[in-house]
Amino acid sequence: MKDFIDPYFLTTPFEQWKLSSFIETRSGPGFVKSDCLYFYKEGLQNICKSSEFDDEQKIMALKLIEKYKVDKKKCAELLKTHENQVTARSIRSNILENRLKLLANTARSANSTIYTTFTQADVSVSGHKVQENQITTGYDFLTINPNPEPSQGIKRDLDNEVDKEEYGAERTIVGGKSTGWVVNGINIRQRLTEYQRTGLQKTRPEYYDVILFTDENQDGFLETLEENVVVQMRKEIERKDEKTEDNIEKKIKLFLNNIITRDIKKTKENLKLQKNDTFEEDFAIFFVNHMIELIEDVNLLLKDMSEGTFIAMVLAPILNRLFIKNKKVWYAKYGETCLRANAEEQNFQKTDDERRSPGKKIDTIIALRNDEEEFSVTEVSGPPSKKDWPHFIGDRLKIIKMSKTLMNRFARLRPNSDIRTVILHGMQIYLYQVILYEFRLKYSEIYTIKELMRFSIPKTWKDMRNSHEAIIGFLKYEHLLSESSSTIEDFLWIEDNNNEDFQRMTTRTVYTSKCMKREKKARIT
């Protein structure tokens, strides 16, 4: 674990741990603000999980995690100073390089002066002349006029800012032949377009050409359809569950019945006697031990816990253990993480300091280790004990938009392959309840996201009677990610098939008619 903790925390007395001093230790020519903040917070989170640090050090790390947001604001000027120093050095070196090149060229011309040459070189580096920003993809060519940063005291154009942030989510895949969705004689794409023209808000999944299926009563677009149509739609996006021969669920229940009792001490004794012959049994033993550490003596799960603390103390250890089986295949990135696919689509980065309101940053991203391609996102919707329905809805929409951005990226990477084979999964945690989603692009211009299952993380020892539900739920999540990653690796590895009959889905991307601002700027090629 120490390999994942910055040396600063190993060499500095824990009483002196501060964000400001951490920044100073990382100052220099290679200073990067985002990396500095990431390694500071990651170090604190890993200290909380490591057995190599004592209780005093862990308590200090937790306190610093809690006040990270405040400390970050206090150190804004310090961070800016170091960034400016790096920028200034870079500009000076570029100016000198340009001067040398231009001196060599102008030496051939007696009509040019050194003064004029230097002026031109300096201006070219300082950025006084800005060219149009061009974004090129495999589907369309887009030219966007740059939007200058607003002057101090001038209100920012929020609508334009949201458009930038949702660049990837507003692009939609248009499929080839035989990819339309017709159910009981109803053209679903046509009906969805009619629904979108009713003044649909950006807070609705349908705005992004995504249809949301949950186990609750239908709302939004599905509410406008006949019940028998919705039932048939569910059947057509349903995947057949593969039943394992050894019936893992029954084995886990029986395994836990021999371990968990009303007495925690007796349970701890039973754990020592158990042999973990399989990955599933190993994870079950870890999960019970993890819950004992959180619940025994002082139940931390009943305390007011922030979102960041929950991720560091509860969720991250579970996922790290869950992913150990495939640690060579994928890895997890925790805490206020940007989706790389989204940044690449937009060609720019934007800060998002407000963790507690739904923004562009994501709590956890799962990525393939070899290909460095992201394929799953997780959102913790606020402090686990705080009811905040708008936050839940906002984070669910964020999962939808980011999943669509990822799907579009895979489509762009293999434009002549069948994107319908790719299935993505997301996870959301709200009030200790875990929700798993499945995201697909099975039909032209229609994405679907379906709620697969829900299960609760135990909060008290009494809840541990049903801990098998959480353990099986997490194991199911690991199995889904394993299938998804394997399919994506095959999808990325296989060469594009240029046979017209094979090109079913990934033919081109467009901005749908509702996105008028974008549509006016787009030119499909």
Structural notes for this entry:
By secondary structure, the protein is of the alpha+beta class. It folds into 3 domains: 2-74, no CATH class; 175-238, no CATH class; 248-495, no CATH class. It is 45% helix and 15% strand. It has 18 helices and 14 strands. Strand 9 (374-380), helix 16 and strand 10 form a beta-alpha-beta unit. The two termini are 50 Å apart. This is 6143_t:CDS:1. It comes from Paraglomus brasilianum.
Outline of this structure?
The chain is of the alpha+beta class and about 525 residues long. The chain is about 45% helix and about 15% strand.
Strand-helix topology:
Blueprint: H1 7-11, H2 19-25, H3 33-49, H4 55-66, H5 68-74, H6 76-106, H7 114-126, E1 133-136, E2 140-144, H8 158-165, E3 171-174, E4 182-183, E5 186-187, H9 188-196, E6 210-213, H10 227-237, H11 248-257, H12 264-273, H13 279-295, H14 307-322, E7 330-337, H15 340-346, E8 362-368, E9 374-380, H16 389-413, E10 424-430, E11 433-443, E12 446-456, H17 467-493, E13 508-511, H18 516-521, E14 522-524
Parallel strand pairs: 6-12, 9-10
Antiparallel strand pairs: 1-2, 2-14, 3-13, 4-5, 7-8, 8-9, 10-11, 11-12
Helix pairs in contact: 3-4, 3-14, 6-7, 11-17, 13-14, 13-17
Q: How is the biggest beta sheet arranged?
A: 7 strands, mixed
Q: Residue share in helices?
A: 40-55%
What spatial order of strands do you see in the largest sheet? 6-12-11-10-9-8-7
Report the C-alpha radius of gyration, rounded. 26 Å
Structurally, the number of domains stands at: 3
Count of extended strands: 14
Secondary structure tally, helices: 18
Task: Tell me, rounded to a whole number, the average pLDDT.
Answer: 78
Strand residue percentage: 15-25%
Low-confidence sequence ranges: 108-165, 347-359, 513-525
- Our measurement of the CA-to-CA distance between the termini, rounded to an integer number of angstroms, reads 50 Å
Structural classification: alpha+beta
Outline type: globular
